[in-house]
Amino acid sequence: MKLTEAWRLSKLPYREVVYRSLAQERGRMWWGAFGRNPSDRDAYEDVELSKRALRIAKFDKLVVAVFNLIVSVVPFASLLLGSTALGLTSSVSLSLIITFGFMTLYAIQTLSSFVSAESSALLSTLPITSNDFSLVTLFSFVRSVDYLVVGSVLSQVVLVAYLTLSPVATALMFGASLMNSVFAVAVALWFSRVFHKNYLRGGRSKRTTLFRGFFVLVWGCLLLGVGLLLSMPYYVLPVLDKALLSVNTLSGILLSFVYPFSAGLAIAKLSGSSVPLVTVFGASVAMAAYALAAWFSAKWSLGTVKRISIGAGVRIDRLRAVDFQIKARGPLRGYVTKDLRVTSRNPATAFFFALPVFETVIVAFLATNYEVLRASTVIVATSMGAIFTLLVPLALVSSEGKEIEYAKTLPITPQRMVSSKALITMATYVPVPFALVCLALLKPLTSWFTILIPFFMVISVVSASIFEIMLFLRSVGRSKIAGIVNDAEKIFAGLLTILVPEAAYVVAYLILFNHAFAALTMGGVTLAELWIALYVLGRK
Amino acid sequence: MSGDLAQSPLIEVSGVSKRFGSFLALDNLSLRVMPGEVFGLLGPNGAGKTTTIKVIMGLVVPSSGKISVCGFDPLSGSVEVKARIGYVAENPIVYESLSPRDFFEFVVSMRRIDQVAANRMVSRLADAFDLAQYFDSPIATLSMGLKQKVALIASFIHQPPILLLDEPLNGLDARSSRIVKDLVSLHAQRGGAVLFSTHIMEIAEHVCTRIGIIDHGKVIAEGTLEQLRSKTEGKSSSLEEVFLKLTNEEAAVADTARMLREAFLGNETH
């Protein structure tokens, strides 16, 4: 088979992979909302859904690739602006770490569908040889990460070429970038396989639950890590520079063996920077070892892809049930439990439950920059948390998927579904006010009344989630599952709901310059919103 | 089953029409299912069987007509109706990321079933359908037949007075098919009503006490197999022959068979 033909054919399994990954991880489908307007054709049709999934995946991939490109450039910002305070070593190393984290995160989302091997099931029925089949599967795999790899390799190579004017350093950067991509894809493939295997095995053992929690934590840490590295290059870079370039210090020598600092040190030395000899030696040995590791990783990845292509993706070791005991709960608890189970089995949506940690860290990060915890800081921190929480209803409704058709056959009212999801959304937000109380104990507040802001926001978050969920369910009621994708702008209804009480606080404060009055006004507005939300819900 | 219900039909559909745009899916359709009856809804693909079941279930709003399920309207008394029905869709829709155990827990909780009763029913049915190997595996990883078993168990769990089964034997092995047929018969013997949609004549012939033949959204014939036979003046004919005669498909099927025979034999001679 010609390579061009194999590349063309690979679009079929690739389309299946993106369709499955988007269908499973609908939380990401909100990208699509900013694409074209919904077509007049019935979105329920599979063909239309598949085309839309591909369109969304392309847009998604492009946005992520552009973002990845930007984050790979950020560590070089000070060098590009002509500052000599920060070295090339740290810039290269940080750029490699950030792109590694980003590529791994993105690839895990897409490859979790790829490893199930079902994407190639249709191709396996065609009369083509096993080698051609493997080639097509390999190309479909490449299609999943092509934009990201090309984008980050190009940006890093071009930047190093521009900054060093050294062909050897540029060539080494090219090699290091490629190695970085190979490692990222291999790690993502390994994680996807392990997660998929664990998912297939099922069961309710402590090991399974622990593993699921661990996976969500890793997912969250990667995202958080990338976010933090991105937010504070000016804090990290000087410390790193000092550690890496100190003559004969143990930290410098040790770091020279650690990827990707070894790459950073080697490139810096080749561009003429002053790097201690012992560190250069360590970095060179380490780079040779990492090149070998990258070669083995690539071989392992290709072998794994080949095994997937022949249907040997993941072996299922089913656990035989020892009993058929089930636990009956009340309808509300039952629905909440179901929602939590459905959402937590998917790494992308599961992370939404890790949002409180994420929010709290952001809140803490913001607040530590100030000596006094001002009302404006509390309002901004509260808004950050609430805005992140607004994604939870979308994740909860979209993770219902077409299975919501089953819920419609049960003797429950739509209010039950809305209450369940609003309750989970509220629970996701609740850690934020307590995190702020903890901060208020460490830093003085301008007025103790301001600490009421995040607590009132809990009420507003409940109202916002009720409005959002009702709007989303209206789309589902029209049998437009994919409608959720196009209706993501309904999040703006929630956004407005959380912003109105804060605006009320600001306006009330500007009238009387009294925090107590402002807080009471805000409380009144949030209660009014809740009354409206419950009234609309009751009328449904 | 209460004494009152035993006197009146459990399902009553009167002059129901349903239009999807320009397509008339149900055309003034009427039928009744009495307690103790297994009513077979037979018809070619696209005849309106699934739409009829969905209208009774309250999942599709009819354009006109009246429906009563145990005396309740499926739209205004949606919760009451759904509490009294065990429903299996044509393509089993269940929460695929849950395991059968998680899924049954969800169903039992939503239906407010007593824990002891729920455990007794689930244990017996899961054992009967041989689900032990798959009870804790995500439903997404199960075969179509196993998913159908999960959907069937979920529909029987609350021992409803009415079963609405849309092609319930799809994908089932011989053993499970037999169990479902037995369960359906047992349900009718206990005074329950079953509306059983199928296009497989043998199943309808063996399971149903009364059959309604539906075509182009209308019930064109209704009665026991004997009554249907007498309508076609073919006392010894099978249900398949009766069906083809009543739907005026007999001549068309014979023509198609002749055409296919010519095409295949023609290929062989080449």
Task: Report on this structure.
The complex is a heterodimer of chains A (540) and B (270). Chain A is mostly helical. Chain A folds into two domains: 3-309, no CATH class; 342-539, no CATH class. Chain A has 24 helices and no strands. Chain A has helices at 3-9, 11-24, 46-73, 77-80, 88-114, 130-164, 167-201, 206-231, 233-245, 250-256, 261-270, 277-309, 331-344, 347-350, 355-367, 375-389, 391-400, 404-407, 414-429, 431-442, 452-477, 483-486, 491-512, 515-539. Chain A is globular. The termini of chain A are far apart. Chain B has 270 residues and is of the alpha/beta class. Chain B has two domains: 3-84 and 160-269, Rossmann fold; 91-159, no CATH class. Chain B is built from eleven helices and nine strands. Chain B has helices at residues 3-7, 49-57, 78-83, 100-110, 115-128, 144-156, 174-189, 201-207, 225-231, 239-246, 250-269; strands at 11-20, 23-33, 38-42, 64-69, 85-88, 162-166, 193-198, 210-215, 218-223. In chain B, the strands form two sheets. Chain B has a six-stranded mixed beta sheet, with helices on both faces. In chain B, strand 1 and strand 2 (23-33) form a beta hairpin. The longest helix of chain B is centred in the last third of the chain and has 20 residues, at 250-269. Classes of the chains: A mainly alpha (540), B alpha/beta (270). The interface between A and B is large, with 40 and 47 residues.
Record keyword descriptors for this entry.
heterodimer; A: 540 residues; mainly alpha; 2 domains; 24 helices; 0% strand; globular; B: 270 residues; alpha/beta; Rossmann fold; 6-stranded mixed β-sheet; 3-stranded antiparallel β-sheet; 11 helices; 43% helix; 22% strand; disordered N terminus
The chain-level mean pLDDT of chain B equals: 86
Strand order, main sheet of chain B: write it out: 5-6-7-3-8-9
Q: Tell me the number of helical segments of chain B per DSSP (H or I, 4 or more residues long).
A: 11
| Main β sheet profile of chain A | none
User: Structurally, how many domains make up the residues of chain A?
Assistant: 2
Which oligomeric state applies? heterodimer
CATH architecture of the largest domain in chain B: 3-Layer(aba) Sandwich
Head-to-tail CA distance between termini of chain B: 65 Å
Task: Please mark out the parts of chain B with pLDDT under 50 across 5 or more consecutive residues, or reply none.
Answer: 1-6
What does the radius of gyration of chain B come to?
20 Å
**General form of chain B:** globular
Structural class of chain A: mainly alpha
Total discrete domains of chain B: 2
Mean pLDDT over all positions of chain A: 77
